[in-house]
Specification:
Layout: H1 6-23, H2 35-45, E1 59-67, E2 70-75, E3 79-84, E4 90-91, E5 99-105, E6 108-114, H3 115-119, H4 122-126, E7 138-142, E8 147-151, E9 153-161, E10 166-167, E11 177-181, E12 186-189, H5 191-202
Parallel strand pairs: 2-12, 6-8
Antiparallel strand pairs: 1-2, 1-9, 3-7, 4-5, 5-6, 7-8, 10-11, 11-12
Length: about 200
């Protein structure tokens, strides 16, 4: 019987542990009922951008982007714009909600978030470099454009099968997390929960 190389086994084990840490509990089975059903419905309802063709039933269109080695998926409906090589105008250290500064886009003042520090577990976030410039080279504007998620790079727009998503079963400490997508090794964001969290932290 062919065995996997040890480094790959260790990597997959570490990734599984990381997913469990994000979910704050044993992950729900794909398509699990209960609280996950509400999360699933809310995310799916806002998954299709008006200018895009509607996905097949049970599919969520999402933009992939990379944050400190972690791939995140954001429902396309929540994406207002993507800015590559953006320049933060007013850099301010020590702001709340992991904000690193602001910029103006289409007449709207956007607060730029160091997404890595927001979403990574505390231990991993503490290991990040103090300078967030490399982590926020690309900005994903969400909602009405008041928040800009800093990321290292933007990926493709993909279709996620809802049945393959390990949905979060309770809000826990991460209201921004909708669930995990093992097939793509990424975390699916709950855009509404993320915006509420940022609004509350900056209030």
């Amino acid at each position: 019987m062919k065995t996997l190389p040890q480094p790959l086994v260790a990597q997959e084990s570490a990734l599984s542990a990381f997913f469990d840490a994000l979910l704050d509990a044993q992950p729900a089975a794909a398509g699990a009922p209960g609280d996950a059903a509400g999360i699933r419905s809310a995310v799916a309802a806002g998954s299709t951008a008006p200018q895009c063709q509607a996905p097949a039933p049970g599919v969520i269109q999402a933009l992939l982007f990379e944050v400190a080695g972690l791939t995140l998926a954001l429902p396309l409906q929540a994406v207002k714009d993507v800015l590559a090589d953006a320049c933060v105008e007013n850099v301010v250290a020590g702001q709340r909600a992991n904000a690193i500064g602001t910029l103006t886009h289409d007449g709207i003042s956007c607060t730029v978030i160091d997404t890595a520090r927001l979403v990574l577990p505390a231990q991993r976030a503490a290991e990040l470099a103090a300078d967030a410039a490399q982590r926020t080279r690309c900005l994903v504007l969400i909602g009405d454009g008041r928040w800009a998620l800093g990321c290292a790079s933007k990926g493709d727009v993909v279709e996620l099968d809802q049945a393959s998503i390990m949905w979060r079963t309770a809000e826990g400490k991460r209201p921004w997390l909708a669930g995990m997508v093992p097939a793509r090794q990424c975390a699916l964001l709950d855009a509404a929960g993320l915006i509420r969290l940022l609004d509350d932290q900056m209030a």
